[in-house]
Specification:
Largest sheet: 5 strands, parallel
CATH superfamily of the largest domain: DNA Cyclobutane Dipyrimidine Photolyase, subunit A, domain 3
Protein name: Cryptochrome/photolyase family protein
Bound molecules: flavin-adenine dinucleotide, ligand DLZ, iron/sulfur cluster
InterPro entries: Crypto/Photolyase_FAD-like_sf, PhrB-like, Rossmann-like_a/b/a_fold, UV-DNA_repair_photolyase
CATH architecture of the largest domain: Orthogonal Bundle
Length: 512
Protein backbone atom coordinates (compact mmCIF):
# COMPACT_ATOMS: atom_id res chain seq x y z
CA UNK A 1 0.00 0.00 0.00
CA UNK A 2 1.02 3.64 -0.29
CA UNK A 3 0.27 4.95 3.18
CA UNK A 4 -0.64 3.25 6.39
CA UNK A 5 -3.39 5.25 8.12
CA UNK A 6 -3.44 4.58 11.86
CA UNK A 7 -6.79 5.28 13.57
CA UNK A 8 -6.77 5.26 17.37
CA UNK A 9 -9.59 3.99 19.55
CA UNK A 10 -10.87 7.49 20.33
CA UNK A 11 -10.80 8.61 16.69
CA UNK A 12 -13.92 6.82 15.50
CA UNK A 13 -15.21 9.37 13.04
CA UNK A 14 -15.32 9.17 9.23
CA UNK A 15 -14.34 12.85 9.20
CA UNK A 16 -10.96 12.35 10.91
CA UNK A 17 -8.28 14.45 9.25
CA UNK A 18 -6.22 11.28 8.67
CA UNK A 19 -9.01 9.71 6.61
CA UNK A 20 -9.69 12.93 4.74
CA UNK A 21 -6.05 13.08 3.70
CA UNK A 22 -5.92 9.44 2.67
CA UNK A 23 -6.65 7.82 -0.66
CA UNK A 24 -9.16 5.00 -0.40
CA UNK A 25 -7.78 3.17 -3.40
CA UNK A 26 -4.12 3.17 -2.48
CA UNK A 27 -3.91 3.50 1.29
CA UNK A 28 -4.71 1.08 4.08
CA UNK A 29 -6.24 1.77 7.47
CA UNK A 30 -4.83 0.14 10.60
CA UNK A 31 -6.72 -0.21 13.88
CA UNK A 32 -5.39 -2.16 16.84
CA UNK A 33 -6.65 -3.43 20.18
CA UNK A 34 -3.58 -3.34 22.41
CA UNK A 35 -2.90 -4.29 26.01
CA UNK A 36 -0.77 -1.20 26.60
CA UNK A 37 -3.74 1.12 26.06
CA UNK A 38 -6.09 -1.02 28.12
CA UNK A 39 -3.70 -1.17 31.06
CA UNK A 40 -1.55 2.00 31.22
CA UNK A 41 -4.12 2.71 33.84
CA UNK A 42 -6.37 -0.22 34.65
CA UNK A 43 -9.53 1.19 33.07
CA UNK A 44 -13.06 0.39 34.19
CA UNK A 45 -14.28 -2.78 32.44
CA UNK A 46 -17.14 -0.87 30.81
CA UNK A 47 -14.73 1.65 29.30
CA UNK A 48 -12.65 -1.06 27.64
CA UNK A 49 -15.77 -2.87 26.42
CA UNK A 50 -17.25 0.36 25.07
CA UNK A 51 -14.13 1.27 23.15
CA UNK A 52 -13.38 -2.18 21.73
CA UNK A 53 -16.98 -2.62 20.62
CA UNK A 54 -17.15 0.89 19.14
CA UNK A 55 -13.85 0.21 17.32
CA UNK A 56 -15.16 -3.08 15.90
CA UNK A 57 -18.37 -1.40 14.74
CA UNK A 58 -16.43 1.47 13.19
CA UNK A 59 -14.32 -0.95 11.16
CA UNK A 60 -17.47 -2.41 9.67
CA UNK A 61 -18.55 1.08 8.64
CA UNK A 62 -15.16 1.88 7.13
CA UNK A 63 -15.21 -1.33 5.11
CA UNK A 64 -18.73 -0.64 3.84
CA UNK A 65 -17.54 2.85 2.85
CA UNK A 66 -14.84 1.23 0.73
CA UNK A 67 -11.73 1.34 2.89
CA UNK A 68 -9.34 -1.58 3.23
CA UNK A 69 -8.66 -2.04 6.90
CA UNK A 70 -6.30 -4.21 8.90
CA UNK A 71 -7.94 -4.72 12.28
CA UNK A 72 -5.89 -6.41 15.01
CA UNK A 73 -7.96 -7.93 17.81
CA UNK A 74 -6.62 -8.12 21.33
CA UNK A 75 -6.39 -11.92 21.17
CA UNK A 76 -5.00 -12.10 17.60
CA UNK A 77 -1.90 -14.27 17.42
CA UNK A 78 1.27 -12.22 17.35
CA UNK A 79 -0.36 -9.07 18.82
CA UNK A 80 2.60 -7.27 20.37
CA UNK A 81 0.37 -5.27 22.73
CA UNK A 82 1.51 -1.76 21.80
CA UNK A 83 0.84 0.88 19.13
CA UNK A 84 4.46 0.90 18.11
CA UNK A 85 4.76 -2.89 17.97
CA UNK A 86 1.62 -3.16 15.85
CA UNK A 87 2.67 -0.40 13.48
CA UNK A 88 6.04 -2.13 13.09
CA UNK A 89 4.36 -5.44 12.24
CA UNK A 90 2.05 -3.72 9.76
CA UNK A 91 5.01 -1.99 8.10
CA UNK A 92 6.74 -5.35 7.67
CA UNK A 93 3.53 -6.86 6.27
CA UNK A 94 2.46 -4.06 3.95
CA UNK A 95 5.62 -2.18 3.13
CA UNK A 96 4.01 1.28 3.02
CA UNK A 97 5.77 4.44 1.86
CA UNK A 98 4.73 6.32 4.98
CA UNK A 99 2.45 6.55 7.97
CA UNK A 100 -0.43 8.97 8.34
CA UNK A 101 -2.36 9.74 11.51
CA UNK A 102 -4.31 12.37 13.40
CA UNK A 103 -2.61 13.66 16.55
CA UNK A 104 -3.47 11.56 19.60
CA UNK A 105 -5.33 12.96 22.62
CA UNK A 106 -2.63 12.16 25.14
CA UNK A 107 0.85 13.57 25.56
CA UNK A 108 2.18 10.13 26.52
CA UNK A 109 1.11 8.67 23.16
CA UNK A 110 2.37 11.64 21.12
CA UNK A 111 5.74 11.50 22.88
CA UNK A 112 6.03 7.83 21.88
CA UNK A 113 5.12 8.59 18.27
CA UNK A 114 7.79 11.25 17.96
CA UNK A 115 10.45 8.53 17.65
CA UNK A 116 8.60 6.42 15.11
CA UNK A 117 9.95 8.14 12.03
CA UNK A 118 13.52 7.40 13.05
CA UNK A 119 12.86 3.94 14.44
CA UNK A 120 10.79 2.75 11.48
CA UNK A 121 12.76 4.56 8.81
CA UNK A 122 9.56 5.95 7.26
CA UNK A 123 7.97 9.40 7.09
CA UNK A 124 5.31 9.79 9.81
CA UNK A 125 2.80 12.55 9.13
CA UNK A 126 0.82 13.73 12.15
CA UNK A 127 -2.22 15.88 11.26
CA UNK A 128 -4.12 18.16 13.59
CA UNK A 129 -7.39 16.94 15.06
CA UNK A 130 -10.15 18.88 13.32
CA UNK A 131 -12.84 17.66 15.72
CA UNK A 132 -11.92 20.51 18.05
CA UNK A 133 -12.87 24.12 17.50
CA UNK A 134 -9.60 25.49 18.89
CA UNK A 135 -6.25 23.92 18.05
CA UNK A 136 -3.42 23.73 20.61
CA UNK A 137 -1.55 26.37 18.56
CA UNK A 138 -4.53 28.75 18.56
CA UNK A 139 -4.92 28.28 22.30
CA UNK A 140 -1.24 29.02 22.84
CA UNK A 141 -1.63 32.23 20.84
CA UNK A 142 -4.70 33.14 22.91
CA UNK A 143 -2.80 32.46 26.14
CA UNK A 144 0.32 34.38 25.20
CA UNK A 145 0.73 37.60 27.16
CA UNK A 146 -2.35 37.06 29.34
CA UNK A 147 -1.98 37.35 33.08
CA UNK A 148 -4.90 35.04 33.72
CA UNK A 149 -6.19 32.23 31.56
CA UNK A 150 -9.83 32.28 32.60
CA UNK A 151 -12.34 30.02 30.89
CA UNK A 152 -14.97 32.75 30.72
CA UNK A 153 -12.82 35.04 28.54
CA UNK A 154 -11.82 32.14 26.29
CA UNK A 155 -15.46 31.07 25.98
CA UNK A 156 -16.58 34.54 24.87
CA UNK A 157 -13.91 34.51 22.17
CA UNK A 158 -15.09 31.08 21.04
CA UNK A 159 -18.69 32.32 20.84
CA UNK A 160 -17.51 35.15 18.60
CA UNK A 161 -15.39 32.80 16.52
CA UNK A 162 -18.12 30.24 15.90
CA UNK A 163 -21.09 32.61 15.95
CA UNK A 164 -22.87 30.25 18.34
CA UNK A 165 -25.67 32.01 20.25
CA UNK A 166 -24.67 35.37 18.82
CA UNK A 167 -26.85 38.18 17.54
CA UNK A 168 -24.28 39.98 15.44
CA UNK A 169 -21.57 41.14 17.81
CA UNK A 170 -23.72 40.60 20.91
CA UNK A 171 -24.50 37.47 22.88
CA UNK A 172 -28.08 36.29 22.50
CA UNK A 173 -30.13 37.49 25.46
CA UNK A 174 -27.63 40.24 26.23
CA UNK A 175 -25.51 38.12 28.60
CA UNK A 176 -22.73 35.59 28.02
CA UNK A 177 -23.59 33.47 31.00
CA UNK A 178 -26.84 32.44 32.72
CA UNK A 179 -25.23 30.38 35.47
CA UNK A 180 -27.05 32.19 38.23
CA UNK A 181 -30.28 30.60 37.00
CA UNK A 182 -28.65 27.17 36.97
CA UNK A 183 -28.35 26.34 40.63
CA UNK A 184 -31.67 24.87 41.64
CA UNK A 185 -31.84 21.70 43.69
CA UNK A 186 -34.02 19.02 42.07
CA UNK A 187 -36.97 17.24 43.66
CA UNK A 188 -37.38 13.50 43.48
CA UNK A 189 -41.01 13.82 42.39
CA UNK A 190 -39.97 15.53 39.16
CA UNK A 191 -40.14 13.38 36.05
CA UNK A 192 -36.66 12.01 35.44
CA UNK A 193 -35.76 11.05 31.90
CA UNK A 194 -33.37 8.17 31.42
CA UNK A 195 -30.60 7.94 28.83
CA UNK A 196 -31.17 5.78 25.78
CA UNK A 197 -30.09 2.21 26.42
CA UNK A 198 -28.85 0.03 23.61
CA UNK A 199 -29.14 -3.74 23.77
CA UNK A 200 -25.74 -5.40 23.10
CA UNK A 201 -25.57 -6.98 19.63
CA UNK A 202 -23.41 -9.95 18.66
CA UNK A 203 -20.27 -7.84 18.24
CA UNK A 204 -20.71 -6.27 21.67
CA UNK A 205 -21.47 -9.64 23.29
CA UNK A 206 -18.19 -11.01 21.95
CA UNK A 207 -16.34 -8.02 23.37
CA UNK A 208 -18.08 -8.42 26.73
CA UNK A 209 -16.84 -12.04 26.88
CA UNK A 210 -13.33 -10.90 26.01
CA UNK A 211 -13.33 -8.21 28.70
CA UNK A 212 -14.77 -10.57 31.30
CA UNK A 213 -11.97 -13.04 30.54
CA UNK A 214 -9.03 -10.73 30.12
CA UNK A 215 -9.82 -7.86 32.48
CA UNK A 216 -11.69 -9.61 35.28
CA UNK A 217 -9.61 -7.88 37.95
CA UNK A 218 -10.23 -4.36 36.63
CA UNK A 219 -12.48 -1.91 38.48
CA UNK A 220 -16.23 -1.82 37.93
CA UNK A 221 -19.20 -3.87 36.81
CA UNK A 222 -19.24 -4.96 33.19
CA UNK A 223 -22.98 -5.64 33.04
CA UNK A 224 -25.59 -4.47 32.42
CA UNK A 225 -23.90 -2.88 29.41
CA UNK A 226 -26.11 -0.43 27.56
CA UNK A 227 -23.79 2.14 25.92
CA UNK A 228 -24.27 3.08 22.30
CA UNK A 229 -21.32 1.81 20.25
CA UNK A 230 -22.17 3.30 16.86
CA UNK A 231 -22.52 6.83 15.57
CA UNK A 232 -26.14 6.13 14.73
CA UNK A 233 -27.07 5.02 18.26
CA UNK A 234 -25.00 7.78 19.87
CA UNK A 235 -26.87 10.32 17.74
CA UNK A 236 -30.18 8.78 18.79
CA UNK A 237 -29.09 9.06 22.43
CA UNK A 238 -28.37 12.74 21.89
CA UNK A 239 -31.74 13.28 20.19
CA UNK A 240 -33.32 11.68 23.26
CA UNK A 241 -31.52 14.22 25.44
CA UNK A 242 -32.71 17.11 23.25
CA UNK A 243 -36.29 15.95 23.57
CA UNK A 244 -36.47 14.91 27.18
CA UNK A 245 -33.76 16.68 29.17
CA UNK A 246 -32.34 19.81 27.54
CA UNK A 247 -35.21 21.95 28.77
CA UNK A 248 -34.23 21.31 32.39
CA UNK A 249 -30.48 20.85 31.81
CA UNK A 250 -29.53 24.33 32.93
CA UNK A 251 -31.81 24.73 35.90
CA UNK A 252 -30.81 21.45 37.58
CA UNK A 253 -27.21 21.27 36.36
CA UNK A 254 -25.80 21.31 39.89
CA UNK A 255 -28.45 19.13 41.52
CA UNK A 256 -27.96 15.65 42.99
CA UNK A 257 -30.60 13.12 44.05
CA UNK A 258 -30.37 9.76 45.74
CA UNK A 259 -30.87 6.95 43.23
CA UNK A 260 -30.92 9.34 40.25
CA UNK A 261 -27.69 8.73 38.43
CA UNK A 262 -28.23 10.95 35.41
CA UNK A 263 -30.83 13.63 36.21
CA UNK A 264 -31.00 15.98 33.21
CA UNK A 265 -27.44 15.40 32.01
CA UNK A 266 -26.77 14.38 28.43
CA UNK A 267 -24.62 11.31 29.21
CA UNK A 268 -22.77 11.69 25.93
CA UNK A 269 -19.18 12.44 26.97
CA UNK A 270 -17.94 8.90 26.25
CA UNK A 271 -19.47 9.07 22.75
CA UNK A 272 -18.19 12.55 22.06
CA UNK A 273 -14.64 11.86 23.22
CA UNK A 274 -14.41 8.66 21.18
CA UNK A 275 -15.55 10.41 17.99
CA UNK A 276 -19.08 8.99 17.70
CA UNK A 277 -20.52 12.49 18.08
CA UNK A 278 -19.29 15.82 16.75
CA UNK A 279 -18.96 18.73 19.17
CA UNK A 280 -19.89 21.60 16.85
CA UNK A 281 -22.91 19.69 15.50
CA UNK A 282 -24.19 19.16 19.06
CA UNK A 283 -23.83 22.85 19.85
CA UNK A 284 -25.64 23.85 16.66
CA UNK A 285 -28.49 21.45 17.40
CA UNK A 286 -28.87 22.91 20.88
CA UNK A 287 -28.85 26.43 19.47
CA UNK A 288 -31.55 25.43 16.98
CA UNK A 289 -33.65 23.94 19.79
CA UNK A 290 -33.43 27.30 21.57
CA UNK A 291 -34.21 29.35 18.46
CA UNK A 292 -37.22 27.13 17.75
CA UNK A 293 -38.52 27.74 21.25
CA UNK A 294 -37.95 24.16 22.41
CA UNK A 295 -35.46 25.01 25.14
CA UNK A 296 -34.88 28.07 27.33
CA UNK A 297 -31.77 30.17 26.91
CA UNK A 298 -30.26 29.24 30.29
CA UNK A 299 -30.30 25.57 29.22
CA UNK A 300 -28.94 26.12 25.71
CA UNK A 301 -26.25 28.54 26.86
CA UNK A 302 -25.31 26.27 29.77
CA UNK A 303 -24.89 23.27 27.50
CA UNK A 304 -22.96 25.15 24.81
CA UNK A 305 -20.66 26.63 27.48
CA UNK A 306 -19.73 23.13 28.68
CA UNK A 307 -18.67 22.03 25.21
CA UNK A 308 -17.52 25.19 23.42
CA UNK A 309 -16.10 26.65 26.63
CA UNK A 310 -14.94 24.11 29.19
CA UNK A 311 -14.16 21.20 26.91
CA UNK A 312 -12.09 23.23 24.45
CA UNK A 313 -10.48 25.23 27.24
CA UNK A 314 -9.27 22.24 29.26
CA UNK A 315 -7.79 20.73 26.11
CA UNK A 316 -5.95 23.99 25.46
CA UNK A 317 -4.59 24.05 29.01
CA UNK A 318 -3.52 20.40 28.70
CA UNK A 319 -1.38 20.90 25.59
CA UNK A 320 -0.07 24.22 26.87
CA UNK A 321 1.12 22.84 30.19
CA UNK A 322 2.08 19.22 29.62
CA UNK A 323 4.13 17.31 30.65
CA UNK A 324 4.81 19.25 33.87
CA UNK A 325 1.09 19.69 34.58
CA UNK A 326 0.60 16.01 35.51
CA UNK A 327 2.86 16.27 38.54
CA UNK A 328 1.68 19.61 39.94
CA UNK A 329 0.95 19.57 43.66
CA UNK A 330 0.72 23.19 44.77
CA UNK A 331 -0.87 22.36 48.13
CA UNK A 332 1.65 19.56 48.81
CA UNK A 333 -1.05 17.01 49.47
CA UNK A 334 0.36 13.55 50.21
CA UNK A 335 -2.38 11.34 51.66
CA UNK A 336 -3.11 8.10 49.78
CA UNK A 337 -6.54 7.74 48.14
CA UNK A 338 -8.94 6.16 50.66
CA UNK A 339 -10.08 2.59 49.95
CA UNK A 340 -13.73 3.62 49.70
CA UNK A 341 -13.01 5.26 46.34
CA UNK A 342 -12.72 1.68 45.07
CA UNK A 343 -15.48 0.02 47.06
CA UNK A 344 -18.07 2.72 47.83
CA UNK A 345 -18.06 1.40 51.40
CA UNK A 346 -18.40 4.50 53.52
CA UNK A 347 -21.11 5.85 55.78
CA UNK A 348 -20.92 9.17 53.94
CA UNK A 349 -24.03 8.84 51.79
CA UNK A 350 -22.95 11.37 49.16
CA UNK A 351 -19.62 9.63 48.57
CA UNK A 352 -21.17 6.15 48.67
CA UNK A 353 -23.72 7.17 46.00
CA UNK A 354 -21.12 8.72 43.71
CA UNK A 355 -18.69 5.81 43.97
CA UNK A 356 -21.36 3.09 43.73
CA UNK A 357 -22.79 4.51 40.54
CA UNK A 358 -19.27 4.91 39.20
CA UNK A 359 -18.69 1.20 39.80
CA UNK A 360 -22.01 0.34 38.14
CA UNK A 361 -22.06 2.78 35.22
CA UNK A 362 -18.53 4.15 34.68
CA UNK A 363 -20.42 7.47 34.95
CA UNK A 364 -21.05 10.17 37.50
CA UNK A 365 -22.27 13.61 36.60
CA UNK A 366 -20.16 16.72 36.93
CA UNK A 367 -21.30 17.93 40.31
CA UNK A 368 -20.76 14.50 41.86
CA UNK A 369 -17.21 14.46 40.49
CA UNK A 370 -16.51 18.02 41.57
CA UNK A 371 -18.47 18.55 44.78
CA UNK A 372 -18.48 15.05 46.26
CA UNK A 373 -15.50 12.84 45.34
CA UNK A 374 -13.28 15.74 44.23
CA UNK A 375 -14.21 17.95 47.16
CA UNK A 376 -13.61 15.18 49.70
CA UNK A 377 -10.18 14.34 48.23
CA UNK A 378 -9.18 18.01 48.26
CA UNK A 379 -10.40 18.59 51.81
CA UNK A 380 -8.68 15.42 53.01
CA UNK A 381 -5.37 16.35 51.35
CA UNK A 382 -5.16 13.36 49.01
CA UNK A 383 -2.17 13.28 46.65
CA UNK A 384 -3.47 14.82 43.39
CA UNK A 385 -1.64 12.28 41.24
CA UNK A 386 -3.59 9.47 42.96
CA UNK A 387 -6.80 11.40 42.48
CA UNK A 388 -5.91 11.91 38.82
CA UNK A 389 -5.22 8.23 38.28
CA UNK A 390 -8.59 7.36 39.82
CA UNK A 391 -10.57 9.68 37.57
CA UNK A 392 -8.70 8.49 34.49
CA UNK A 393 -9.42 4.88 35.37
CA UNK A 394 -13.03 4.86 36.47
CA UNK A 395 -14.98 6.88 33.89
CA UNK A 396 -15.92 5.75 30.38
CA UNK A 397 -15.28 9.27 29.10
CA UNK A 398 -11.80 9.64 30.60
CA UNK A 399 -8.83 10.57 28.44
CA UNK A 400 -5.98 12.49 29.90
CA UNK A 401 -6.46 15.64 27.78
CA UNK A 402 -9.86 16.28 29.40
CA UNK A 403 -9.54 14.47 32.73
CA UNK A 404 -6.21 15.88 33.88
CA UNK A 405 -7.01 19.63 33.82
CA UNK A 406 -10.40 18.90 35.38
CA UNK A 407 -8.73 16.98 38.19
CA UNK A 408 -5.42 18.76 38.74
CA UNK A 409 -6.78 22.23 38.00
CA UNK A 410 -10.51 22.52 38.53
CA UNK A 411 -10.98 19.95 41.26
CA UNK A 412 -7.74 19.70 43.26
CA UNK A 413 -6.30 23.23 42.86
CA UNK A 414 -2.96 21.47 42.41
CA UNK A 415 -1.90 23.97 39.73
CA UNK A 416 -2.08 26.75 42.31
CA UNK A 417 -4.96 28.56 40.63
CA UNK A 418 -4.04 28.54 36.95
CA UNK A 419 -7.40 27.08 35.99
CA UNK A 420 -9.71 27.90 38.89
CA UNK A 421 -9.78 31.20 40.73
CA UNK A 422 -10.36 29.44 44.04
CA UNK A 423 -10.42 25.87 45.34
CA UNK A 424 -13.78 24.13 44.81
CA UNK A 425 -14.34 23.28 48.44
CA UNK A 426 -17.52 23.13 50.44
CA UNK A 427 -18.76 21.95 53.79
CA UNK A 428 -21.75 19.60 54.11
CA UNK A 429 -24.05 22.58 53.85
CA UNK A 430 -23.66 22.97 50.09
CA UNK A 431 -24.12 19.24 49.45
CA UNK A 432 -27.24 19.39 51.58
CA UNK A 433 -28.54 22.36 49.64
CA UNK A 434 -28.02 20.74 46.26
CA UNK A 435 -29.05 17.15 47.11
CA UNK A 436 -31.25 14.95 49.26
CA UNK A 437 -28.34 12.73 50.33
CA UNK A 438 -27.99 14.09 53.84
CA UNK A 439 -31.50 12.98 54.81
CA UNK A 440 -30.50 9.33 54.70
CA UNK A 441 -26.87 9.72 55.77
CA UNK A 442 -25.66 8.32 59.07
CA UNK A 443 -23.76 11.55 59.66
CA UNK A 444 -25.56 14.70 60.65
CA UNK A 445 -24.99 17.56 58.29
CA UNK A 446 -26.05 20.20 60.81
CA UNK A 447 -23.53 18.91 63.34
CA UNK A 448 -20.24 20.73 63.01
CA UNK A 449 -17.90 18.90 65.34
CA UNK A 450 -17.60 15.77 67.44
CA UNK A 451 -18.91 12.24 66.96
CA UNK A 452 -21.53 11.90 64.19
CA UNK A 453 -20.79 15.29 62.61
CA UNK A 454 -20.67 15.41 58.81
CA UNK A 455 -16.95 14.95 57.96
CA UNK A 456 -17.09 17.66 55.29
CA UNK A 457 -17.75 20.29 57.99
CA UNK A 458 -14.62 19.98 60.07
CA UNK A 459 -12.45 19.06 57.07
CA UNK A 460 -13.52 22.29 55.38
CA UNK A 461 -12.10 24.46 58.16
CA UNK A 462 -9.08 22.22 58.59
CA UNK A 463 -8.33 22.62 54.88
CA UNK A 464 -8.44 26.42 55.12
CA UNK A 465 -6.44 26.43 58.34
CA UNK A 466 -3.65 24.11 57.23
CA UNK A 467 -3.37 25.68 53.76
CA UNK A 468 -3.38 29.25 55.00
CA UNK A 469 0.22 29.92 53.84
CA UNK A 470 -0.82 28.95 50.29
CA UNK A 471 -4.26 30.53 50.21
CA UNK A 472 -4.43 33.50 52.51
CA UNK A 473 -3.94 36.00 49.68
CA UNK A 474 -6.63 34.54 47.48
CA UNK A 475 -9.20 37.34 47.14
CA UNK A 476 -12.09 34.89 46.75
CA UNK A 477 -11.29 33.29 50.10
CA UNK A 478 -11.33 36.56 52.02
CA UNK A 479 -14.72 35.87 53.55
CA UNK A 480 -14.14 32.33 54.85
CA UNK A 481 -10.75 33.34 56.27
CA UNK A 482 -12.37 36.32 57.99
CA UNK A 483 -14.99 33.98 59.51
CA UNK A 484 -12.27 31.57 60.65
CA UNK A 485 -10.27 34.33 62.28
CA UNK A 486 -13.31 35.67 64.10
CA UNK A 487 -14.16 32.24 65.48
CA UNK A 488 -13.56 31.58 69.19
CA UNK A 489 -10.28 29.69 69.74
CA UNK A 490 -12.14 26.85 71.52
CA UNK A 491 -14.41 26.43 68.50
CA UNK A 492 -11.40 26.41 66.18
CA UNK A 493 -9.82 23.73 68.35
CA UNK A 494 -12.97 21.62 68.19
CA UNK A 495 -12.86 21.81 64.40
CA UNK A 496 -9.17 20.94 64.39
CA UNK A 497 -9.52 17.95 66.68
CA UNK A 498 -12.61 16.63 64.88
CA UNK A 499 -10.84 16.91 61.52
CA UNK A 500 -7.69 15.30 62.86
CA UNK A 501 -9.69 12.37 64.21
CA UNK A 502 -11.23 11.92 60.73
CA UNK A 503 -7.85 12.15 58.98
CA UNK A 504 -6.45 9.72 61.50
CA UNK A 505 -9.16 7.23 60.65
CA UNK A 506 -8.22 7.58 56.99
CA UNK A 507 -4.55 7.04 57.77
CA UNK A 508 -5.38 3.97 59.87
CA UNK A 509 -7.63 2.76 57.03
CA UNK A 510 -10.54 2.60 59.42
CA UNK A 511 -14.10 2.90 58.22
CA UNK A 512 -15.45 6.39 57.70
P1 LIG B 1 -23.34 17.04 30.68
O1 LIG B 1 -23.43 17.55 32.05
O2 LIG B 1 -24.60 16.68 30.01
O3 LIG B 1 -22.54 18.12 29.80
C1 LIG B 1 -22.52 18.04 28.37
C2 LIG B 1 -21.12 17.90 27.85
O4 LIG B 1 -20.33 19.02 28.19
C3 LIG B 1 -20.34 16.70 28.38
O5 LIG B 1 -20.66 15.52 27.69
C4 LIG B 1 -18.91 17.13 28.14
O6 LIG B 1 -18.49 16.81 26.84
C5 LIG B 1 -18.96 18.64 28.28
N1 LIG B 1 -18.44 19.05 29.58
C6 LIG B 1 -19.13 19.39 30.68
N2 LIG B 1 -18.31 19.79 31.66
C7 LIG B 1 -17.06 19.66 31.19
C8 LIG B 1 -15.77 19.90 31.74
N3 LIG B 1 -15.61 20.37 32.97
N4 LIG B 1 -14.71 19.64 30.96
C9 LIG B 1 -14.85 19.16 29.72
N5 LIG B 1 -16.03 18.92 29.15
C10 LIG B 1 -17.13 19.17 29.88
N6 LIG B 1 -15.21 14.97 31.27
C11 LIG B 1 -14.80 14.11 30.33
O7 LIG B 1 -15.31 14.12 29.22
N7 LIG B 1 -13.79 13.21 30.58
C12 LIG B 1 -13.19 13.15 31.79
O8 LIG B 1 -12.30 12.34 31.99
C13 LIG B 1 -13.62 14.05 32.82
N8 LIG B 1 -13.05 14.02 34.04
C14 LIG B 1 -13.48 14.90 35.02
C15 LIG B 1 -12.86 14.87 36.26
C16 LIG B 1 -13.25 15.74 37.26
C17 LIG B 1 -12.55 15.72 38.59
C18 LIG B 1 -14.29 16.66 37.00
C19 LIG B 1 -14.72 17.61 38.06
C20 LIG B 1 -14.91 16.69 35.76
C21 LIG B 1 -14.51 15.82 34.76
N9 LIG B 1 -15.12 15.83 33.47
C22 LIG B 1 -14.67 14.97 32.52
C23 LIG B 1 -16.12 16.85 33.12
C24 LIG B 1 -17.60 16.43 33.33
O9 LIG B 1 -17.78 15.99 34.64
C25 LIG B 1 -18.07 15.38 32.33
O10 LIG B 1 -17.79 15.80 31.03
C26 LIG B 1 -19.56 15.15 32.42
O11 LIG B 1 -19.91 14.75 33.73
C27 LIG B 1 -20.00 14.11 31.42
O12 LIG B 1 -21.34 13.78 31.57
P2 LIG B 1 -22.47 14.27 30.55
O13 LIG B 1 -22.12 13.84 29.16
O14 LIG B 1 -23.76 13.77 31.10
O15 LIG B 1 -22.32 15.81 30.67
C1 LIG C 1 -8.60 3.82 26.04
C2 LIG C 1 -8.17 2.88 24.96
C3 LIG C 1 -8.22 1.50 25.20
C4 LIG C 1 -8.75 0.93 26.46
N1 LIG C 1 -7.80 0.63 24.28
C5 LIG C 1 -7.38 1.06 23.07
C6 LIG C 1 -6.92 0.16 22.07
O1 LIG C 1 -6.85 -1.03 22.27
N2 LIG C 1 -6.55 0.68 20.89
C7 LIG C 1 -6.58 1.99 20.61
O2 LIG C 1 -6.28 2.38 19.50
N3 LIG C 1 -6.96 2.87 21.56
C8 LIG C 1 -7.36 2.44 22.77
N4 LIG C 1 -7.74 3.33 23.73
C9 LIG C 1 -7.70 4.76 23.41
C10 LIG C 1 -6.27 5.30 23.52
O3 LIG C 1 -5.81 5.13 24.84
C11 LIG C 1 -6.27 6.76 23.08
O4 LIG C 1 -6.35 6.80 21.70
C12 LIG C 1 -5.01 7.47 23.49
O5 LIG C 1 -4.94 7.53 24.89
C13 LIG C 1 -4.96 8.90 22.94
O6 LIG C 1 -6.06 9.65 23.42
FE1 LIG D 1 -22.40 13.83 52.68
FE2 LIG D 1 -22.22 15.04 55.06
FE3 LIG D 1 -24.54 15.01 53.76
FE4 LIG D 1 -23.58 12.75 54.80
S1 LIG D 1 -24.20 14.57 55.93
S2 LIG D 1 -24.47 13.00 52.77
S3 LIG D 1 -21.38 13.04 54.51
S4 LIG D 1 -22.65 16.00 53.09
Amino acid sequence: CRKLVLILGDQLSPDMSSLRHADQKRDRVLMVEVMEEATYVRHHKKKIAFLFSAMRHFVQELRIAGWSVDYVRLDASGNTGSFKGEVKRAVARLNPEGILLTEPGEWRVLAGMRSWQEDLGLPVEILSDQRFMCSPAEFRAWATGRKQLRMETFYQDMRRKTGLLMDGEKPVGGKWNFDKENRKPARSDLFMPSPKRVRPDKVTREVLDLVENRFADHFGSLEPFWFAVTKQDAEAAFEGFLEASLENFGTYQDAMLEGEKFLYHAVISAYLNAGLLDALTLCRKVETAYREGKAPLNAAEGFIRQILGWREYVRGIYWLKMPAYASENALEARRPLPDFYWTGKTRMKCVAEAVTQTIEEAYAHHIQRLMVTGNFALLAGVDPSEVHEWYLMVYADAYEWVELPNTIGMSQFADGGLLASKPYISSGNYINKMSDYCRSCSYEVSRKTGEGACPFNALYWHFLDRNEPHLRNNPRLGQPYATWRKMAPEKQDQYRSTAEAILNRLDQREEL
